[in-house]
Design a protein that fits this description.
Low-confidence stretches: none
Radius of gyration: 23 Å
Number of helices: 8
Structural class: mainly alpha
Shape: globular
Oligomer: single chain
Largest sheet: none
Helix content: over 70%
């Protein structure tokens, strides 16, 4: 009798382990599919800036079925938001490399501003922000990515300030939010038809990071 109970427990444990293993593999496949969809969309948007990208084209580029878009993201618009911010975060890391090469704070502000305004991901992010205004269900997705951008930029600014002995005239979280809000706002204004271009903007003036050699 005892042998039968032991065998039953062994079978139950084996089944439970198998179920967990299957569940883990399913989650891993799901994450891999989401990643392929986001990366494929980001690539298509970069290759065809301003052009409309269809669900069928995205699915084909990612090597999945079109219904996977709605299954994993709910809508194409949500996927476009994820892809736009993936491109922005990649661009932001390149901007950090440019910033680290600056010999002084004035050059740092100027080079960062110039590079940000030339980022290829900005138009896609501007479209994502505009979509979130008209479609409230996208707002949490946009906010989540913006918070990630702000945190990443704040950490970078902190390393620069501490490593170089520079200073900022306001808290670094405010510094980074002000800077990115100015940059993204400028792109939105231009896309909305405002006269001028982002080149007319003194984005460097939105940064207060300075060194001891500068007055004030």
């Amino acid at each position: 009798m005892e042998k039968k109970r032991t065998g039953a427990r062994s079978t139950s444990t084996s089944t439970s382990t198998s179920t967990r293993s299957t569940s883990t593999r399913s989650r891993d496949r799901g994450r891999a599919t989401r990643r392929r969809l986001i990366e494929a969309t980001a690539r298509l948007c970069k290759e065809r800036p301003g052009a409309e990208v269809s669900v069928a084209e995205i699915a084909n580029a990612a090597g999945v079925f079109p219904n996977q878009v709605t299954y994993h993201f709910g809508s194409k618009d949500s996927l476009l938001v994820h892809a736009a911010f993936l491109g922005l975060l990649h661009d932001a890391r390149r901007i950090e490399r440019i910033g680290r090469q600056a010999p002084d704070a004035a050059t740092f502000r100027r080079n960062i501003a110039r590079a940000v305004l030339a980022m290829p991901s900005l138009p896609s992010v501007a479209r994502a922000l505009a979509a979130a205004v008209s479609k409230p269900e996208l707002a949490p997705v946009v906010d989540r990515h913006l918070q990630l951008l702000f945190r990443q930029s704040e950490r970078f600014a902190g390393r620069i300030v501490d490593g170089r002995g520079w200073k900022a005239r306001r808290p670094l979280d405010v510094e980074t939010r002000t800077f990115w809000s100015t940059a993204l706002g400028a792109v939105l204004l231009v896309r909305a038809g405002a006269h001028g271009t982002v080149a007319d903007l003194d984005l460097a003036g939105a940064l207060t990071i300075h060194d001891e050699a500068e007055p004030g």
